[in-house]
Amino acid sequence: MLARVARRLLSFTPEEKLVYEKLTKQLKPRQIEVRDISGGCGSMFAIDITSEKFKGLSMVKQHKLVNKVLQDDIKRWHGLQLRTRSE
Amino acid sequence: MFARFVAQNFARRPAAFARFMSSETREAITGAIKSAPVVLFMKGTPEFPQCGFSRATVSLLGQQGVDPLKFAAYNVLEDPELREGIKELSEWPTIPQLYVNEEFIGGCDILVSMAQTGELAKLLEDAKALVPEDEE
Questions:
Q1: Sequence spans of domains, chain A
Q2: Residue A82 at interface with chain B, using a CB cutoff of 8 Å
Q3: Is A16 in a helix, a strand, or coil?
Q4: What residues have CB less than 8 Å from B22, skipping those under 6 apart?
Q5: Which helix H or strand E contains B99, and what residues bound it?
Q6: The pTM is what?
Q7: What is the distance between the alpha carbons of residues B128 and A57, in angstroms, rounded to a whole number?
Q8: Chain B residues lying within 8 Å of A83, measured CB to CB
């Protein structure tokens, strides 16, 4: 498991790593997946995240939590594909 | 197809863009939100979407059977003030954004999820925003 995480981290682009670290720190996710899906320009990301912090929140509020953590980054991007789950 | 409602109010204004919305801009945007039961802020127009997420959202609303008479779309690419202002007002950083009866519903991902669970159909039906079914 640890080796898999490490390998995944190594294969991250710098921006993916930044996003991954910000979200991990702020939202303590049980599961998180960050992928640059821009095809090279680095302005489109897919994020799939499961966190206890989403419990009891509507989907809009769950997304807003993520948007807040990434507010400075999202400004630079063209788009974000987001999937949030509480369990 | 969808009725097209070009945001002329926005297009005629100078493209000067302030970091915080002027009250005039805010008023224009709230007016837009109230202009129809289903309001979409998107990149491009329903006929010619200029972003994959906006395209997906328009076709989703079409599949759900949204009544063109109850639908308005605003092209944020025509006006930087609208583009930034709507993000600030909704507290939502991306386009497209859907409003139903003046309430912010979400962006593309949320709409796709809501369509899968049937929540979107119910929401649009409750809002009486669907094309009436043919009675035969």
A1: 2-85
A2: yes
A3: helix
A4: none
A5: strand B97-100
A6: 0.83
A7: 26
A8: 109, 113
Instruction: Give domain limits for chain B.
Output: 8-126
Q: Domain A2-85, what architecture?
A: 2-Layer Sandwich (3.30)
Q: Residue B129 has which token pair?
A: 């925003």
* ipTM > 0.90 (yes/no): no
**Among A10, A79, A8, CA closest to A47:** A79
Cβ separation B91–A64 shorter than 8 A: yes
Beta-bridged to residue B73, according to DSSP, are B40
Cβ distance B104 to A60 less than 8 Å, yes or no, reads yes
- pLDDT tens digits for range B2-34: 444 544 445 444 444 445 678 899 999 999 999
For chains A and B, what is the number of CB pairs under 8 angstroms?
33
- Assigned superfamily of B8-126: Glutaredoxin (3.40.30.10)
What are the pLDDT digits (tens) for A25-61? 999 999 999 999 998 888 999 999 999 999 999 999 9
Q: B109: left (phi > 0), else alpha (psi -120 to 50), else beta? A: alpha
Tokens of B126: 């409750």
Query: Which has the closest alpha carbon to A87: A50, A33, A34?
Result: A50
